[in-house]
Design a protein that fits this description.
By secondary structure, this protein is α/β, with parallel strands linked by helices. The chain contains 12 helices and 15 strands. It has 2 domains: 241 residues, 3-Layer(aba) Sandwich (Rossmann fold), CATH 3.40.50; 100 residues, 3-Layer(aba) Sandwich (Oxidized Rhodanese, domain 1). The strands form 3 sheets. The protein has an 8-stranded mixed sheet, sandwiched between helices. Strands 9-14-13-10-12 form a 5-stranded parallel sheet. The chain has a two-stranded antiparallel ribbon with strand order 11-15. The mean pLDDT is 89.
Length: 358
């Protein structure tokens, strides 16, 4: 149960209550981007008691980030953003389970979304926004979006309860047209704090099922005029279908990459830093006598995995590939970031390696 003392001031809100606080604790939110938007989003979600948070970002802290990225200090310069952010966030609220993905969100890493209920898009690259949208449409996951330019920003929620998507608002990227980054055009730090807080608010409303979510609407904020306006936009079924197709293509390609051929498996097994786990029962044959093979039957994997580094590269195998596939999916759902399996099982290694014995 949630710590009612910590959250007492929001639990007394009739719209939250003890049941709402439990919903927050059970929620799983993936924040993509740990920069100017991601920092206030993460800070607010952690303090509100959102129980399971993923953070994806392959960047490191730069001194030029410090005026707007509030989770970092000068001592963090050069460190992984997600690692530094997790350290601060766990100190803020040790009750929250935080999983870090120290990598950029790309086609080959997109499968990380599968275990989350809500995605928060805190990126600043157009291509990545389309990718996030498409994968989220394919998995039917709502996306809380924001973007910033100088003193202005906008916020919206996509894919919420079968609502409009990012492609409904921006049907297609115009070739040759790019949006200047903060590095090029500049940004006032408080604007990112404001927009990130708007995003966190939408996430909490979605989890709690309260208020009016910004689905099919864009909130535009102008700091210089201290004004906001809301513009409605329509659902475009063709745009949604296009995103669905593209998203499924990305996710299916990612799954195929996680299935290793016999040759690829044998090559990887030569690297001592990779953990190779045989998930068959102990007495099963044929036996693979590799130097770094660990025998952990599938039924014992959950307990064993609690002591593994979630960023450690892991390879799984079994007799035919079915149990290792299930094991891979289990570990990925637990937040492991680099898991693959021998697609056709140990039987595919016969006549290819002298370490196979019957």
């Amino acid at each position: 149960m949630p710590n009612n003392t910590r959250y007492s001031r929001q639990i007394i809100l009739p719209e939250v209550g003890a049941l709402g606080q439990q919903k927050l604790q059970d929620a799983r939110v993936l924040v993509i981007g740990a920069g100017g938007l991601g920092c206030p989003v993460l800070q607010n979600l952690v303090m509100a008691g959102v129980g399971h948070i993923g953070i994806a970002d392959g960047d490191v802290v730069d001194e030029s980030n410090l005026h707007r990225q509030s989770l970092y200090t000068i001592s963090d310069v050069g460190k992984s953003k997600v690692v530094a952010a997790k350290q601060v966030l766990q100190a803020l609220n040790p009750e929250v389970d935080i999983v870090v993905f120290p990598e950029f969100f790309e086609s080959n890493t997109a499968a990380m979304v599968e275990k989350y209920q809500i995605i928060v898009d805190c990126t600043d690259a157009i291509d990545v926004r389309y990718l996030i949208n498409d994968v989220a449409v394919a998995k039917r996951i709502p996306v809380v979006y924001a973007s910033i330019h100088k003193f202005q920003g906008q916020v919206s929620v996509f894919n919420y309860q079968n609502g409009p998507s990012y492609r409904c608002l921006f049907p297609e990227k115009e070739e040759g047209i790019t949006i200047p980054s903060c590095e090029m055009s500049g940004v006032l730090g408080v604007v990112s704090q404001m927009l990130g807080s708007f995003q966190a608010t939408e996430v909490l409303k979605i989890i709690l099922g309260i208020g009016e979510v910004l689905s099919g609407k864009v909130l535009i904020y102008d700091a210089l005029c201290c004004q906001t306006q809301i513009i409605a936009f329509a659902k475009n079924q063709k745009a949604i279908e296009k995103g669905f197709i593209k998203g499924n293509q990305v996710l299916n390609a990612t799954k195929q990459k996680n299935g290793l051929t016999a040759t690829a498996f044998l090559e990887k097994c030569n690297h001592p830093e990779i953990v190779v786990i045989d998930v068959r029962e102990v007495e099963e044959l044929p036996e693979y006598k590799g130097t770094n093979i660990i025998k952990i039957p599938l039924g014992q994997l959950a307990a064993y995995s609690e002591n593994l580094n979630k960023n450690q590269e892991i390879i799984l195998f079994c007799q035919s590939g079915q149990r290792s596939l299930a094991a891979m999916q289990y570990l990925e759902n637990c937040g492991f970031t680099s898991v693959s399996h021998l697609e056709k099982g140990i039987v595919s290694l016969k006549n290819q390696n002298k370490s196979i014995t019957t």
